[in-house]
Design a protein that fits this description.
single chain, alpha/beta, Rossmann fold, 4 domains, 7-stranded parallel sheet
Length: about 750
């Protein structure tokens, strides 16, 4: 499997928050040392405050780091902060020429995760920037890598463990010693001479005075800190907290199953049973979609899973797991999923990762007998995600609490007593990332994201106690009670003839076709740019005690203008080149005023014209085949919070959309209706459109648009034109507010889709 990456707005906003703090910094050619920050303290503070202001963050009164800027980025676990700081590294190099970076991590799991992310994103960043970062892990026995860091071309990134420069051990003190094998140089001097940009991953783990003093010996140009749980605040320039991450559907939703009322081994057995049960339920649902399901256990003692005193080395929890797994899978009905289960022996479907077994003192890592498990769990994320890999359940003590995660962890079992600090957040964070299928595509369609992406946490305390503990750790996301979730079945309204007739009208499969003359697109883009293109001149400010001087900003950086616009518009270089050469001289001259803004604004105008032309030109044709619209999983709801029973919907209760459903319930002209499942989509050239509701009235059938881009909605109107007896409406809600005697949708003639005209 190869993970696929795409540019996401919430991540580019986090990148821009850091990069824009240095707006006006000249770009110097790369060398063996990062160029100094040329901005005065006043200008730098003004930049930081401008970034904070646009993000709605508290404004800094003064720079926290004095001569060395210290910027904080807060991102909820699972939203891709490692990707964000790697892209920030690439953007700082592109904009300002800085090329020497150090990533400081607190432990082995985070280090291996960071190295893996650098590896799997290399091609992605090569496409975006035309180059890729060279990264390595600092090793005092391989100092030739440090020479390459000092003198190598391009972006050089060193990843270093906290212990490598903050430990009293003889090996780790070598960084401060003159070494014969290193030409009588001190490694720390070579590092500090580069004036590196220092990135700290999980700074709450590196917050001691001794650690901070050690960091200063790197001679950092600036320091960037990335975490979901900052303990010490500096200049906060970006925040994506748990509530926003959930609201924007960037992470899984969380359901908690509390096991209390029993104690001792019986409690742990019940928890293990609930984890396996939740795992199998999710696996039945997703196996046919090509999604590997993983579960993670956090345990209190290594010996509970791996007991070296026994011949089979199976600890108490491992033996419980084997017994419960056999019992819960024995009754699986015949079919593809049962055959999948039968292909995996129970002893091969679970594995453990432990940094150190403190009872025996045995090192459980790549140098010990557990090398295969170490590589699979910590380094080979893609293999662990493959359906051909039998391991589906992972046991860990504390080594995986931070730094490691896997997008397909759907169940977490906490077989240990609660701890202080941020342990609950750290533990659930291992499973918050959105899942991926076997083709490497992330399952992040907004219409279905929380139907698929749900993390079940099985804990040894009640739901209320667990949520209260999370809130004490400043958790702001939503958590639901897993024991209150009930599967909602389709009711008698679904089987009504008029509803089945309506379903049959919208379920035919279709293909679309787009035909237009490229010369028309070129002409419209040129006209739009000449009429509407606006570019703000870039400037930098030089500020002294009594005077402020403003100068035009000149980058000096060579830019592939045609390529940059082609990448953002998905047009050929030839088409983009033709558009640019036909612009008026005054329009094209705007490029010199601000190249970056010119590229962004021009690409946006081109995309607008392209979308408009597509919506005018698209046509649909019905082909053989039908969509099974309600053939997927039954929704799970907390019925006690779902409101009154619905009389006309095909489900008795709804979660989201309940307010609109009550409006429809009150209308006499509506016979039956349904919120369409998120996996039903209308294909359009601009991406799938997910319609909102199917409504059967006394005189017609209406499909409403989903919340979407207007251009995709316009394409969906064209789709509805090919269907027999179906009206497409952008919204039916306004008519619901009419008087009782006139509570009807607009007449069909008023809502028939029409071609978009200019």
């Amino acid at each position: 499997m190869r993970l696929r990456f795409k540019v996401q707005e919430f991540q580019t906003e986090a990148v821009a928050a850091v990069v824009d703090c240095f707006a006006g910094q000249p770009r110097y050619p790369g060398g063996v040392r990062n160029a100094p920050i040329a901005l005065g303290e006043g200008r730098l503070l003004a930049n930081v405050r401008a970034v904070q202001d646009r993000a709605g963050l508290p404004l800094s009164e003064a720079l926290a780091g004095g001569d060395v800027p210290n910027l904080d980025v807060e991102m909820e676990t699972g939203t891709g902060k490692t990707y964000v700081y790697i892209r920030t590294i690439m953007e700082l190099h592109r904009r300002y020429g800085w090329s020497r970076f150090i990533v400081v991590v607190p432990g082995v799991a985070i280090r291996e995760g960071v190295l893996k992310t650098f590896a799997v994103t290399a091609d992605h960043f090569q496409q975006l920037y035309g180059t890729r970062p060279r990264c390595f892990a600092y090793d005092s026995s391989a100092l030739h890598e440090l020479d390459r860091f000092r003198s190598g071309a391009g972006v050089q990134v060193m990843i270093i463990n906290l212990q490598a420069f903050n430990s009293a051990s003889r090996e780790n003190r070598r960084i401060y010693e003159e070494l014969d094998g290193f030409q009588s140089r001190r490694p720390i001097d070579v590092i500090s001479a580069a004036r590196p940009v220092v990135v700290i991953d999980e700074p709450q783990r590196i917050g001691s005075a001794r650690s901070l003093e050690s960091l200063s010996r790197f001679g950092p140009l600036l320091v960037l800190r990335y975490s979901a749980t900052h303990r010490v605040r500096h200049d906060l320039v970006h925040r994506l907290d748990a509530a926003e991450a959930y609201r924007e559907k960037l992470v899984k939703r969380i359901a908690v199953i509390g096991v209390d009322g029993v104690a001792g081994p019986a409690k742990r057995r019940l928890q293990i049973r609930e984890v396996i049960r939740a795992h199998l339920e999710k696996e039945r649902e997703l196996h046919g979609r090509g999604v590997k399901v993983l579960s993670l256990f956090f345990i209190d003692q290594v010996v509970k899973y791996r007991d070296y005193r026994r011949a089979d080395q199976l600890g108490e929890y491992a033996r419980m797991f084997a017994a419960e797994y056999a019992a819960l899978t024995s009754g699986e009905p015949d079919g593809p999923y049962r055959r999948y289960l039968a292909s995996i022996p129970v002893e091969r479907t679970h594995q453990g990762y432990f940094a150190v077994d403190r009872r025996t003192g045995r090192q459980v890592d790549g140098r010990a007998s557990d090398v295969d498990a170490y590589d699979l769990i910590l380094r080979d994320r893609e293999r662990l995600l493959s359906l051909s890999e039998p391991v589906r359940f992972v046991f860990s003590h504390s080594a995986l609490r931070e730094g490691w995660d896997n997008p397909n962890v759907f169940v977490i079992g906490i077989l240990k007593s609660g701890e202080g600090g941020v342990s609950r957040r750290q533990e659930i964070g291992r499973g918050l990332r959105l899942a991926v299928a076997q083709d490497g595509q992330r399952l992040d369609d907004p219409a279905t994201v929380h139907e698929i992406n749900e993390l079940t946490v099985v804990t040894d305390e009640s739901y209320a106690a667990f949520v209260a503990g999370l809130q004490r750790e400043s958790w702001t996301g939503e958590v639901i009670d897993g024991r209150q979730l009930t599967k909602i079945s389709l009711n008698a309204n679904f089987r009504r003839y008029d509803f089945q007739d309506a379903l049959s009208r919208i379920s035919p499969r279709v293909v679309y076709r787009v035909e237009f003359d490229s010369s028309l697109l070129i002409r419209r883009c040129v006209e739009a740019a000449d009429a509407r293109l606006s570019v703000e001149s870039a400037q930098h400010v030089v500020q002294s005690n009594q005077h402020v001087a403003i100068f035009p900003y000149k980058s000096g950086e060579a830019v592939d203008l045609v390529g940059a616009i082609a990448d953002r518009t998905r047009l050929t270089r030839r088409t983009v080149g033709t558009i640019l050469t036909r612009l008026r001289t005054a329009t094209f001259a705007l490029y010199r005023a601000n190249p970056d803004h010119f590229i962004i604004a021009t690409a946006e105008l081109i995309n607008q014209e392209k979308s408009g032309l597509i919506t005018e030109s698209v046509s649909y044709q019905v082909i053989d085949g039908q969509h099974e619209i309600f053939g997927g999983r039954s929704p799970r709801l907390d019925v006690s919070r779902a409101g009154p029973r619905l009389a006309k919907h095909v489900y008795d209760h709804l979660g989201t959309g309940s307010a609109f459903a009550r409006e429809l319930e009150a209308r006499d002209d509506i016979l039956v209706y349904a919120r369409l499942p998120g996996d039903f989509a209308v294909p359009t050239p601009l991406g799938d459109h997910h319609p909102g509701w199917l409504i059967v009235l006394t005189d017609r059938i209406v499909v409403t648009a989903g919340d979407d881009d207007p251009a995709r909605i316009a394409c969906a109107r064209r789709w509805a034109e090919t269907l027999d007896g179906v009206t497409f409406s952008a919204s039916v809600l306004p008519s619901a507010h009419r008087s009782a005697d006139d509570r009807k949708l607009p007449p069909r003639a008023d809502t028939r889709p029409r071609a978009v005209q200019r």
